[in-house]
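Components:
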Amino acid sequence: MPEVRVVNLTKKFGNITAVDNVTLTIRDQEYFSLLGPSGCGKTTLLRLIAGLIEPTSGEIYIGDKLVNDVPPEDRDVGFVFQTFALFPHMTAWNNVIYGPKVKGFDMKQATTVGHEVLEMVKLHERLDAYPGELSGGMMQRVAVARALAAGAQLLLMDEALGQLDAKVRNEIRYEIRKMAKDLKLTGIHVTHDQSEAMAISDRIAVMRKGKILQVGTPQELYMNPDSIFVAHFIGESNFLEGYVTGKNKEGNIIIELREGTKVEALNGSFSEGSNVVLSMRPETLIVEHGLQEGQNVVSGVVERITFEGSSIRYEIRLDNDEMVIAIKPTLSGDWLEVGERTKVFLPVEYTRVFPYPETGLKEELSVA
Amino acid sequence: MTERITETLDKLSSRNVVKYVVYASAIIIFFSLIFIPPIAGIFLKWDNIQFILEQPALVNRALGAIQNSFIIALTVAALDLIAGIPMAWLIARGKNRWLSIIDTLADIPFIIPTTALGYSLLLFWSGSGGVSALFGESIVSTGWLLVMLLHFTFSFPVVVRVMVGALLDYKVEFERASRTLGAAPFTAMRTVTFPVLRPAMISAFILAFARSVSETGATIVVAGVFENGSVFIQNIKTQFAVSNPALYNGAVVFASFILITVSVGIFITIRLLGPKLKLPLKRVRPQTERKLSYKTAERSRNTVILAVFFALILLPSLFVALSAFEAIPTPTFTNAISGSGIWSDYWQSLLLSYGVGGIVTVLNIIIGLPAAIIIARNKAGKFMSSIFDLLVNVPLVVPSIALGVSLGIFWTSSLALPDFILLVLAHLAITYPYFVRSMAAAVERISPDMEEASRTLGAKPLGVFRTIVFPLTKYSMLSGAIMVFTRSVSETGATLAVTSKLQTAPVLLVNWIKQVVPASQLDIALASGFLVLFSFIILLILRLVVGREEKY
Ligand SMILES: Nc1ncnc2c1ncn2[C@@H]1O[C@H](COP(=O)(O)OP(=O)(O)OP(=O)(O)O)[C@@H](O)[C@H]1O
Ligand SMILES: [Mg+2]
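Structure:
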């Protein structure tokens, strides 16, 4: 139910800054994902919100109330741990009704609440089993049921699907989202799996090294990444280094790539001579037999082909020795072969240009 | 050359016959040297029981003493848990950097040979220079209360050590989950942490119980006219061993039999029923429990526990050091250093103690390693291995003087073994569980995957041990070995029972304190002081070793 707001939030562990001056609003009833590579501070941010650790500085608001000094048991949050943290000495059922019990409910009330939430997570069997005897999927359901039974308004999930196999994971992630929506909960979902975040989130915050790089809907992040890292981490991108040699009459810039090839790209705000990185999604590149020489056409050799079912993925080494990836629908026919020379067309309308990162492209793309 | 030998041994080790022989001999050695003699011996003199049964007064005295043993052991173990758990919590969870010093200090009463500890407590509680100086009279005189205080003191570190280890291993995630589900810190501790840590509490309780039931030397020092089982056996010895050997044998066999049976019975009951004991999550009272969770409540709990620790445990344990310092400027000190008069016996006894300790430690490593692997890896089949695991603990809970009596009868009735060998055998039996348990726990922590990986990479079984198991457990091995050594050095009861010729340091100290040998207060204080000093050095080594292990 609540809106969650963190303001200038920082958490340091010794000299490591795990969360670095983060300001973020998660809307009421939103299903929100924190996405980022391992070690970027997602778990730390989630723990701060839950009150499991105290911030070094900054404020946390849950539903307009400053909760910095509120202990976790009074924040009405449900936390689903990566390893589920089901109490090993209690049966599944006793795990579920643990929340109501420690809140002082009598057995009858606790039982009612327990049955309600089990109905929601569709768990009816093996309630007498101990956590060690349950499958991953069932543990997951019990963990969620337990959080809901405690009256959580805000569901915090830390890689809560990480332990499940791909198939179960795909099913459960939609179920949890739907349940959160039905119950009008606010959900914060931590993951390092971008496809999972894209599939279920209303909005996503991409984190890196303790900072939030960009917040937006999955479409926004995909279509308009505002940094090289986001373009790289959400979906897939080709990056080509170059520098601006001038503008043409449409206001587009001309970039000279390595070894002199010139291409035209959208965005006029770079001055002549600035170093840039040209980025393009693999599915926007056009590779076909019979492409003619021309503007934005480069050439290279197909080095590797991966058949991915609905699409085919080509890794092409350009003549300037840079690699690009192109992805084509399988059904488009017209397949290339390994070792074949080909031309690659880079459509201007799909180009994005970023300033060349100060620390170098490689460092910028690294997920560490 | 050595390479050739290891290579040959490696090859041999992959033969099933060799494996079979190694594990079988570990089991045979266990039964023939460790398990059977301390239990079976008494049956060889079973007939003598009739002599004590003819004397109902003596029977009643024996039964009363034995009852005292168990009442004290159970009470002390319970009190130790009550005081030890908050202490362990403070050490494991506290953030203050002074805590690591407190952590080290908490081991002191464990390391000081109990006889010296007993003397220190005696000086502190009822000597004229101790707390009595503050109150004008001796507040705790010798007797059951002082025995309780003593046993509480020397078994406290055991509980703290076990519980700190358990708390450090414990997944804090459970407690966090409980907090987010609405439990106040106190509630989380009560409903989640403690139930999950129950096995550790059970083993802490058993260890404290065993130490209390088993202790003899220090108890004699502080008991006065009070008798528990161990003191009874010793008193009977001085009373009748020469004048009426048949009665002496009867009484000792009678008391030992009951002590051994009841101890083992209690141990097995706790081991079997403890884990089944459900602590039901009764109705929670959120408001009250919340109050108990407040920072102020936590702070006052910490203050109380630290006060208890310093006033009741640490200060009395180290009190003897003060008197020892007093002795330094006196001629006593010069006598001691030059080893003149009674002091020449002292240094000899110290040499004997450390010598036996060293031999026993080495023997334990040799015979204990395969046994530890059997337990940790179920090498004898799951059922047999867990039975073995249970039996290994038996020497721990058998009162050491009773163990000594029985073992002495067993070996001397058929062979005329020299006293020194008897002494080694007795100490070996008593210390065996310590090494095997700590090694088994260490081996269990190594994932079998790792050993299997090494096998698939071509290592032979012995090679796996040399390259994987040994490097990963060598610190546990060292700390297990040091535990065996200190336990052996401090052992009095079994020593008294198996030999009257050889005097180890604690036995000699008992004789000095009991004035069997005329020694002055300063002599005794200084002798205890030396033991404390050497213990400190051992503690320091232990800390360095264990400290290194943590970095793994
Ligand atoms: N209790 C702690 N003490 C010291 N450092 C910590 C602690 N918790 C986290 N860190 C550090 O803070 C940084 C962020 O950790 P965090 O667990 O939040 O990352 P994460 O994004 O959740 O990573 P992952 O995807 O691997 O779970 C890491 O460098 C980590 O080593
Ligand atoms: Mg994490």
